[in-house]
Amino acid sequence: MQNYFFNPFLTAWQQPPFAPPGMSPFGPGNLPLAPPPSEIPMQPYKIDPGSIRRCKRKYTYIWLKNGDSFWFYPVYIGRKSISGYRWIGFWWIYYGTDLKKIESFVCV
Which superkingdom heads the taxonomic lineage of this protein's source (predicted)? Predict the structure, then answer.
């Protein structure tokens, strides 16, 4: 994991994608304000870049190919990657991953 620090000599587009707690690097209103649902959904979909687009700004449960699974709130879905906020049990952290690493998902 790479540590990011603000550098006043870089322009805004060169700064790393971080923001103060409670703020999103993609603008206000993207950070989920509540915890995810307490129950894990049971009918996952296989990953497809087109199919996961409908999950943008929705609570999404993700199963990774390495066996990890977690609640996720996507705010960016690209052709090869996804980023947003990952629930770690008591708060959201900013997280991103390659779409190839996702085994399946369900958004609610």
Answer: Bacteria
